[in-house]
Specification:
The protein is elongated and about 95 Å long. 36% of the residues lie in helices and 22% in strands. It is built from 15 helices and 18 strands. A hairpin with a 5-residue loop joins strand 17 and strand 18 (419-423). The strands form four sheets. An eight-stranded mixed sheet has the order 3-7-8-13-12-11-9-10, sandwiched between helices. Strands 15-14-16-17-18 form a five-stranded mixed sheet, sandwiched between helices. The chain has helices at 30-49, 63-69, 75-80, 99-108, 153-169, 188-199, 208-216, 227-232, 245-260, 305-308, 323-332, 355-367, 381-390, 401-405, 427-439, and strands at residues 5-9, 14-18, 53-54, 60-62, 83-85, 91-94, 118-127, 139-148, 175-181, 266-267, 279-287, 295-301, 316-322, 345-349, 372-374, 395-399, 408-413, 419-423. The chain starts with a strand and ends with a helix. Helix 5 runs parallel beside helix 9 (245-260). By secondary structure, it is of the alpha+beta class.
Length: 440
C-alpha cells in the first residue's frame, strides 16, 4: 500500500502531512537523468540514421480519439484510461499510447501531402491505470516510431530493424523477436468464425472479459492473461491458416527481408497485440531476463487507422518501446553510464571580500561553456575543497587573498594535484585549453 509520510512538528504541536507521489508514478531524480538522457540520445541517433523525425503531441486528447483509434474491446479502453470531464464538459483522456495521437496529428495537419512515407518518432510519458510493478508504472514513458503512407512489406522490415538496432546500440543481448500476421478485413472474418466455433462449447468457462470479447472481437481472447483462458485457447485456429493471398504474400516477404538481413525471429501464431487497430504484420521483442514482463517493444501494421480517425486511406506501421523496461534491462546488464557528470571548475573563495570578483569570473566561465559551481554557504576553504571533490570537479580555482592582491588566482588540477598561479584575465583562455586536453 502507498502511504503518506507524516512529519510531527513538536514546537507548535501541529502535524504536517507530506503528500507523496501518486501510486504508480515515480520521481526521476538527478542521479538517474544521465541514464535517461543517454538512452534517449541513442534512440534519436538511430532514428536520424533511418531518416525519422521527431513529433510531439499533447499529453491529453478527446476521449473519442482513443475509443475510435484503439478499440472499445481493448483492456486499455475498457479498464486503464485516465478519463475526466474538463470545465467545458468535454471528455478528456490522458494519452494511454501515442499512435492514435500521431495519426490524429498526421490527419489534422494534412501531413499526407508531404514526402511519402511520413517517418516520425516520439519520446514521452503515457498514462494507464494498471497495477504498478517493476518496469510498469501508471505514468510510464515510451519511445516509438510511426511510418505512414507505405504499404510495402519493406517498410515493415525496416521498422523491425530500427527497433532491434536501437536495443543493440544500447548493448542489449538475449533479445527474442516474435512475429505474426493478424490478417486484414478480408481474412479476419473467416478466422473470427472459426474462433467462435472453437470457443463456443467452453464459453461459460472463459473469464468475464473474454465472454464479452467472444461476440465483439474473439481474436482478443488469445491475448488474455488469465490462466484458464490461456489453457482453453490451446489448439485454437491460427490466423496464419486463414490468411488471404495478399496477407500471405506480404508476410512471406517480411520474413524473406528479415532473413536476408540476418535477423533471427520466431513465428508466434498467438501474438495478436493488445490494440484493435493492428492489421497484417505484428511483432514483439522480448528480453527474457526481465521474466514475466519480458516485452520491451511491440508494434505492427495498422492500415485502417488513418481512415478510422477521419483521414484518407493511408497504410501505416510503427512500434512503441517502454523506456522503464529498457532501463531495467540495461541495469541488469550493467550497461548504464555513471550517474554523475564531472564539473569543469569549482570556485573556492578564501574571503567574502573577494566574492564579487569570484562571482564575476564564474559568470564569465559559464558564458564560455564551462560547467562551474561555487560555495554558497560561506564555508571554510577546507570545506570548500571537500565540496569540490564531492562534485568531481576537474579543476579548482582558488581566490586567495595574496594572489588576488597580485591580480591572480591559483588553478589546481584535481587529478594531478598540480597547482599554478595564473593571471585572472588569462583564466578563461587557460581553462578552455585545459578542458580541451581533458576531453581528448
Amino acid at each position: 500500500m502507498h502511504k503518506r509520510k507524516i512529519l510531527v512538528i513538536n514546537s507548535i504541536g501541529g502535524v504536517i502531512v507530506l503528500i507523496g507521489a501518486p501510486r504508480g508514478t515515480k520521481d526521476i531524480l538527478p542521479g538517474s537523468i544521465v541514464a535517461w538522457r543517454y538512452v534517449e540520445q541513442i534512440m534519436r541517433e538511430v532514428c536520424a540514421a533511418f531518416d525519422y523525425h521527431e513529433i510531439r503531441t499533447p499529453m491529453f486528447e478527446h476521449t473519442e480519439l482513443f475509443h475510435r483509434g484503439i478499440g472499445d474491446t481493448t483492456d486499455v479502453v475498457e479498464k486503464e484510461m485516465y478519463t475526466f470531464m474538463d470545465r467545458g464538459k468535454r471528455s478528456i483522456t490522458l494519452r494511454p499510447e501515442n499512435t492514435a495521437s500521431v495519426v490524429r496529428a498526421f490527419v489534422e495537419n494534412k501531413m499526407y501531402g508531404d514526402v511519402v512515407p511520413t517517418k516520425l518518432y516520439y519520446i514521452g510519458p503515457m498514462f494507464r491505470y494498471d497495477r504498478p510493478q517493476a518496469g510498469r508504472m501508471r505514468q510510464f514513458h515510451q519511445f516509438g516510431i510511426e511510418a505512414l503512407g507505405a504499404a510495402s512489406p519493406t517498410i515493415d522490415a525496416e521498422v523491425i530493424m530500427l527497433a532491434l538496432q536501437t536495443l543493440k546500440r544500447l548493448g542489449l543481448t538475449d533479445l527474442k523477436l516474435k512475429i505474426n500476421s493478424v490478417g486484414c478485413s478480408v481474412c479476419r472474418p473467416v478466422h473470427r468464425k472459426l474462433l467462435q466455433d472453437f470457443f463456443r462449447p467452453n464459453l461459460d468457462k472463459l473469464c468475464r472479459d473474454c465472454q464479452s470479447r467472444f461476440e465483439r472481437n474473439p481474436l482478443r481472447i488469445l491475448d488474455c492473461k488469465v490462466a484458464e483462458c490461456k489453457t482453453l485457447a490451446e489448439g485454437a485456429p491460427k490466423i496464419t491458416d486463414c490468411l488471404c493471398e495478399d496477407c500471405k504474400s506480404h508476410f512471406a516477404k517480411v520474413q524473406e527481408l528479415l532473413t536476408v538481413a540476418g535477423v533471427e525471429y520466431e513465428l508466434d501464431s498467438n501474438l495478436v497485440r493488445g490494440l484493435d487497430y493492428y492489421t497484417k504484420t505484428a511483432f514483439e521483442i522480448q528480453y527474457s531476463p526481465l521474466g514475466a514482463q519480458s516485452a520491451v517493444c511491440g508494434g505492427g501494421r495498422y492500415d485502417g487507422l488513418v481512415e478510422e480517425i477521419g483521414g484518407p486511406s493511408t497504410p501505416g506501421i510503427g512500434f512503441a518501446m517502454g523506456m522503464e523496461r529498457v532501463l531495467l534491462a540495461l541495469e541488469k546488464q550493467n550497461l548504464l553510464p555513471e550517474g554523475k557528470t564531472a564539473l569543469d571548475v569549482f570556485i573556492v573563495v578564501s574571503n567574502t571580500i573577494n566574492l564579487p570578483l569570484a562571482f564575476k569570473i564564474i559568470s564569465l566561465l559559464r558564458s564560455n561553456g564551462l560547467a562551474c559551481d561555487m560555495d554558497f554557504l560561506e564555508r571554510s576553504m577546507k570545506a570548500q575543497m571537500k565540496q569540490a571533490n564531492r562534485l568531481q570537479a576537474r579543476n579548482v580555482v582558488i581566490f586567495g587573498e595574496d594572489e588576488v592582491a597580485r591580480g591572480a588566482v591559483v588553478l589546481r588540477n584535481m587529478s594531478t594535484s598540480e597547482q599554478t598561479e595564473v593571471k585572472i584575465e588569462e583564466l578563461p583562455i587557460i581553462l578552455n585549453k585545459t578542458e580541451v586536453q581533458n576531453h581528448e
